[in-house]
Description:
This protein is of the alpha+beta class. The chain has a single domain (about 5-290), classed as Coproporphyrinogen III oxidase, aerobic (oxygen-dependent coproporphyrinogen oxidase), CATH 3.40.1500.10. The protein is built from 8 helices and 9 strands. The strands form 2 sheets. The chain has a 7-stranded antiparallel β-sheet with strand order 1-2-3-4-5-6-9. Strands 7-8 form a two-stranded antiparallel ribbon. Helix 3 (about 160-175) runs antiparallel to helix 5 (about 215-240). The N and C termini lie far apart (about 55 Å).
Amino acid sequence: MTDQTLETRKDLARTWFSALQKDIIAELESLEDEVMPPLFHGEPGRFEMTPWARAKGPNGEDQGGGVMGLLKGRLFEKAGVHFSEVYGKFSEAFAAQIPGADKSDGMFWASGISLIVHPRSPKVPAVHMNTRMLVTSDSWFGGGADLTPVLDIQRDQGHPLAQQFHAGMKDACDKHNPDYYPKFKDWCDEYFHLPHRDEPRGIGGIFYDRHNSGNWDADFAFTKDVGLSFKKTYADIVRQTYEQSWADAEREEQLVRRGRYVEFNLLYDRGTTFGLKTGGNVNSILSSMPPVAKWV
């Protein structure tokens, strides 16, 4: 791979992730517009967009940054949709954990989109999605999407909402390789698990990392389809559930389940660790935390 080809690929990836951020934000704001009293009150929420930059390098060089998009609305109690493009040098300790960093003298480049949605209604599942490209002396894609219903009655992979979400993820995979979905589904189930409670975070989805088939164009096309399928599938699920009323006991169940979400993100989530270890925007990284949670 020549440097020119690599720079072209970086440009294609960063442009896509930035555009996807804007498209998903527009979809979530459209959903905010649709809901009405008596279940939802006030004006529809809008994203606040905040550019940020990493600290300068040791010689004053730019090290990238991103745009944090944060919404606090009537349908979505909290939603964060973030774009980033960061580069520079890993710390020596962290570089040892990243493939190819030993051959790049710790230098890296990464760009991607990450999002979390915490709906106000317990009937509407929370969701997480991210896709990214990372470059050291190697390069690869990673990401995925997983659904987290907060009511026990919905927390089964046989539930219609779970089946609908998995069908969307399977469709994205099957366009590229029939082996992807079963492999990435199992990877998701294994990754989004709370060992200390021996329970899943949600009903799963897909998760993939260090994905390099040897065909960059094909891997990029797959990563794009993951984002597009997520956008459509989740919007459909929200529209099917936002008109359902809920009781105080269901809100309580939602808040306790959100506590489990906090536990996973702070104890086990690699994205949180990567962001903090590479000087990312702390507010953006920790925006995955729900606005209100409980422990019992």
